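hiii, so i know i said id send this last week but things got crazy w the move. better late than never?? heres the sequnce for the chain we talked about at the cafe, plus the structure i predicted for it. fair warning i was half asleep when i ran it
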Amino acid sequence: MQRRKIKYLPLVFGVVVLLLVLSLNDAHAVPSFARQTGMPCTECHTLFPELTPFGRIFKLGGYVLSKSDKPYEFPPPLAGMAQISYTDARGLRTAVAPFNSSRTDDNINLPQQLSVFYGGRIYDKTGAFVQGTYDGVGNKFLLDMTDVRYSNNTILWAKNLVYGLTINNSPTVQDVWNTTPAFSFPYAASGVAQTPAASTMIDGMLSQQVGGIGAYIFWDNLIYAEGTVYRTARRGVTRPLSAGAKVDQVVDGAAPYWRLALERRWENHFFTIGTYGMQADIFPPGNLGGPADRFTDIAFDAQYQYLGTIEVEHKQMKMDGSPMGKPGKHIISAHATWIHENQDWKAGFPLGNTANSSDFLNTFRMNLNYYYMSRLGEIGGSIGYFSTTGKTDPLLYSPGPVNGSRTGSPNSNGFIFEADYLPWEKTKLSLQYTIYNKFNGAYSNYDGFGRNASDNNTLYLLGWLMF
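okay and structure toks below
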């Protein structure tokens, strides 16, 4: 009986998605940024949430560009998002059932996520992107990605200089290129599928765990530089930035973050190369004082975009000096990032949490996207590769059912294939398949309890609605 129910779950998912899609129309599917500016979403996004060059300038400008000449927006720039999903992973039920029977029916998530956004101008030159989320998998409400900005511009050496301040709660959420972790591919993933045990600290481990304030400049649409300082959001003035989240990564003192990028444009081709990183001293789990472990992350990234032949729609000019219009029918983009993390176990090694006094991790990701603007909607496809390698540590990566490592190695790698369809601007349907070649250090029997890397291969269907 249970197998029969699982068999028909994809059909149920498809019907639900179809009903939701048909209940929408273009007039009611407009997010806050489009409401504020009066521009179509293709001005800021290729296939949301990936940004175009204009979208990057809009974000760096503090989210304040508006069709209104008033210093504030009324009604407030609010928007919503809903995600529903279905996950089919080899061995998902057998992996979960023996250890947590409450998750045996979590293949379908209705919803996976519900969000409300305040996105746009607050007053004059201050704006924000604030996301409040209901997590349907964890059954909790939290303050999600948050970025509040003040921005201005001036002339330096006869070139335009954008400068500003950012207050945010997740390192890299303030970044405008889709190579850094907060907004990198894949833009959505299953909330119930198994994932590798090892991850660098900058790669999402501090999301909603810290609060930071930083300053940035962007000169001549060419050079971007930023410095931000983070503190734990467990208490004090930064605590509201972790609302609803359990803060289990407690930072000792301040954690500096840096970012440098160069962007060059040739007609409709855009190429960016950069570096980013941070250093954080973090107390062992359960500790609020004493010695702390040091994590030093240094990363390099690159991005390429081709927007096709831009169809000019207005004589008005964009903030970067080019005419407004929508991208051509063919859009190509590629992203890559490499992160190296040194782990100095000043606290963990004496406590017996690690076998080595120091370890390291290397993470590499790259993806290639192609989108076609057809009369029936936007059609896209992506292929991505991911790899994590590091030093063997049998205590840090110990054997254990499903999530353990028989070899003590953090090494994992694989591919992600994704097909996307946007029948309308704010409705996105995705089919994603993840293949693991290696998981937690091995291809076969990686956990020491007979589980293979391929048992974590995942089929993921997503309906993503913006309104």
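btw Residues 1-30, 95-105, 312-324 have pLDDT under 50 and may be disordered. thought thatd interest u
miss u guys!!
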